[in-house]
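COURSE: Structural Biology Practicum
ASSIGNMENT: Worksheet 4, Part C
STUDENT ID: 0417
INSTRUCTIONS: Below are two proteins. For each, the amino acid sequence is given first, followed by its structure token string. Answer the questions at the end about the second protein only.

PROTEIN I
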Amino acid sequence: MSRSATAHAGAAEPGRPRRERWRALAVFLAFAGFYLLLASRHFYATDEETVYRLTESLVERRTLAMPEGVWGLATSAGRDGRQYAVTGPGQSLLAVPLYLLGVASASLLPPGARGYATRFAVSLFNPLITAATVSILYALARRLGARGGAALGLAAIYGLATTSWPHGRTFFAEPLTALLLLLVCYSFRCGTEARPAYGWLIGGGAAMVGALAVKPHAALAVPFLGLYLLARAASVRGEVGRLRIDWRRTVPLLAAAGIGAACGALPLGLYNFALFGHPLRTGYGGQNASDLFVVPFATGLYGLTISTGKGLLWYSPPFILAIAGWWAFWRRCRAEALLCLGIVTAHFAFYGRIFAWHGDGSWGPRYLMVGLPFAILPLVGLLDGLRARPIRLALTSAVVAAGLGVQLLGVLVNFDWYILRSNEQARHFAPAASPILAHARMAGERAGEWRERAFPPPNSAVMTDGFAPAAPPPGRPAERPGLFPRWTTGAGVITLHPARREPLTVKLTFFDHRPLAARVERPTILLGGVPLDDRAVARQDLTGTGEGWIYQFTVPPTAIVGEGASVTLRSATWNPQASGQGDRDETLGVFVHNVEVWQGAEPLTIREALPLDRMPETPRQRFWWFNDDRNYWETRHHLVDHWAWYLAVAGFSRGQALGWGILYGVASGATLLVGLVLGRGSLPASPVRAMGGGKRRRAATKGRGVAGTGGRAV
């Protein structure tokens, strides 16, 4: 900001710095609560599992070495022969407090769910990081002279209408890297204004090395941040438009940033040397460029920009608005405009050629996430005076609404569900196979699927609880198997939905494979939870040995409560493996071969409305339970990619699930509420009005910065 801008801001708002801190805090809390409430609380890729396992090793084993023989790790051999994570240590170290929180809260769940609890807690990390990025983006826009409404609009658009929201639900390293690099920019800006602030510069230098400790690829942004600092330090009283090197000003500023960088580089260099034998060698090793840069640049650039499978313009539509606003941003904030242009261009140039340019296992182009805050920042140049231009306001609103819709599709539907069902080439480049369209279809299909299960049509009999697949298949069957045969798990519940309030006839065919000694107590029938009199059930022994049975009985109209009647086939349970009769280590009841129901001469359609298989206890099986719901029966899909849904179907007791959900939901909701309440008194009363200002205000502030608070170079 220019000298006149600083003087203007200080005169107009004596308490502005303090108020701005409260405003930034309000933005952070509001977005943190929002993200936490709509999070998924699980991992999507083995990259996340690797970062988590390093955190686990630090806490549980007090070592940087990764455990041997563990699924899903991306490791590299260290100089001592042990395996270490290829990722940097930064994010794993910062996640330690959340891991400890997971350990402390695991007592609320069954003993086998400890791994679920710790991963649940660690996955809180990126929602908080993304909320912090939104807050810093708001603060940076204000520092550049933007009005409160424009700055708030920029932050909200970034946080809700770009891929920052879906990526913030993961445990990938890109969100933290983006935050640290944005913090570097903000720190360098604060530290090089008319009155230098050396503390900001030291912190900025340390944050820059911290980004490298999280993701070495952050080096793409380092040269541009260095040039930005040099331009700011060499300017006259912080005015980049008047470059003239004053060594008495420039050297101390650069030295302060260098001290901060050295404070971060020393431990990072020691870490790399201790593990990999060289201060500059990381877990990624010395990969040859010939193996890395194998994609034609035109293909990668097309894929990253306008392809329907990964193009940034489709997955973060506000980027279009940022391009439109770049010229206005350049006229007023030249150093920041060049910084944004350099960082974004470098990421397109680098990732456009690497073999994994798409960064699959994510929503949109994952690797561009690091530069996304810089790609969106020029949008603030378009938001200024927006209300006074109705056509521009309408177009901007439409693009932002499209961006919000795209992110909702990435949030409601787990992107792995479609990735595992589709062809990579078609998914990336064929418009008809775009994940955006596929997620829209899947969201509608799953809503219809579960609506039908929750509200079955008349003349149907629905298996609602207590049934299990016949046997775990050795591989995925070529065709979807039928409804039967099925095991019960002790009490198989069938809900009848007749079209009329008339008697129903039910016929159950099943085999009792329990050991002979366990068949002393024969299976019973319950209507509405009440045992049916033995004389009301016609039993036929199919095998003559007491193993195969047909049970037939009548459901009277009095048992039809509301729109349905409940029939339960209850039996004592057994474990085939414990009984020496197979390898299946599960608690089972009887083996149902068929269910038939009639009302008069009209048969009822047999359907299933079964809960998903309970969440497994092993990390690998649990990972696929979340991310690959192409299970044996192919219709037992997750409804939405949301923590509350997973908690409800995980198989915990009702008390455990409610207790855990209420505790988390209240904490997240309280965070959101505090942010909104705090923001109500500190943020602009009318953000839209603040974004506008009308022609008279523009005329009065002509020649000032982005928001009319200073000179040309802000």
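PROTEIN II
(use this one for the questions)
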Amino acid sequence: MTKAFYITTAIDYANGTPHLGHAYEKVLTDVLARYHRLKGERVQFLTGLDEHGQKVQQSARARGIEPIDLCDEAAGLFQGLCAKLLISNDDFIRTTEERHKSVVRRLLQDLHDRGLIYQAEYKGFYSTRAEQFLQEKDKVDGEWPEIYGEVVEITEANYFFRLAQFQDWLVEHIQTHEDFIFPRFRARQVLEFLKEPINDLCISRPKERLSWGIPLPFDDAYVTYVWFDALVNYISAVGQGTPEFEAYWPADYHVIGKDILVPPHAVYWPIMLHACGIPLPKTILAHGWWLKSGRKVSKSTGVTIDPLELIDRFGPDPFRYFVTREMNVGQDSEFSVELFLSRYGSDLANDLGNLINRLLNMAGRYRDATVPSSGEPGEEESTLRSLWEETRPSVLGLYDEFLFHTALEKTFEFIRATNRYTERRAPWKLAKNTDPAAAGQLDTTLATMAEAIRLALSLLGPVMPETREKGFQLLGSGPADTWENELAWGDSLAGSRLAAPTILFPRPGPDLAPVDQPG
């Protein structure tokens, strides 16, 4: 079997609720997954939930419920977010599932048997928020960064993985594999981190302090530390240890936020895999943060935006379009409701929605809601078609380079050009012209508008799947046998019955309440 295109998100933590960062990461990964499916590839898209750890245990106790009940609630919330956003994930892994726990136990036992896990006493600093042991070098200007929350000193016996002995190997791997971390400047940050000696990784917690976790297979007085548990999801979900594993692994892309690149995904994870004799993922794609007035949008900073409100009000595709159009992958980007409404009104309602509605309206009035056959193209038609022949390869190339914001900009340049073409051809004037030649020009104009809209909708498919589907229905069309054929200019719509005029993107009323929420 041909290897699948395998793509993953970070798994979300069960002690939280969905926020803008979760929604964006799901959309970004879904855009990639849908793009590769449209290209004809077999895709496996994984997301899921990280369910063990001290914070889950503490929150469950505070509410008087079992940890698994809290995790079930969280799973419902995050699966609900995926459904609302039309996320096309093929699997949803939960780290409390036996298929995951069995892989974690097997890998731990193997590493222990080979002397790569040992027991020792630890004395130092610990962050409950990050569930991470810290060192003095983790301070910034002598202070613990806000991301760590309260930091305390502890002393306890634990098990450690010999992370440090693989440091030089990891440095060499990053230096010799330029595609391993994207954007490349993030790789330089990882290498900067690795200039200082790294410590071995604590991979356990004593059960007397934390019982909610996977017991160590070689000492059931301890449970597995969250990173050695959570990170394994990427391979446990695709059957590591079974013959089917090679049909998926290595992953083509791990899509994560930049805040968990170093050290978990760019240091711990590759070394864990290498020590276990498992190939590394091809690329770790680290996206940036959403900012509001320059501050990170997150629960920890007290700056929050509820993505579900926007999705409920405007539908999934406008939200998907906005976050993909505004974020240059790898960089930070500003989010505001005002900017969202501006994009919604100008790009979606005016440029795309109005164009489709004009076609439906005019074809209904002048050609009995049927797409006519195109006559001989004139200069205006040839110019628009030439623009399409430039736009198509340009946009596909930008998708390949993760430049989705520019790909959408190019796509909407073509849509706006189609609007300009419509204005210049003025089919409403041609319809009144009694010259027989005008009738042929009207047919060619409506056919050209329909074809340009069909092509634009197809190109928007990875980002706006619902709009593509609805648009095709309005045009009386459907997907072609291949996306390549679907993106080819032709006359396939001739004779298609069009739907009645339809407003795809209704303008919001004046009573739109703010969806920005204080922390």
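ANSWER KEY EXCERPT:
Q1: The two ends are 49 Å apart (CA to CA).
Q2: Residues 513-519 have pLDDT under 50 and may be disordered.
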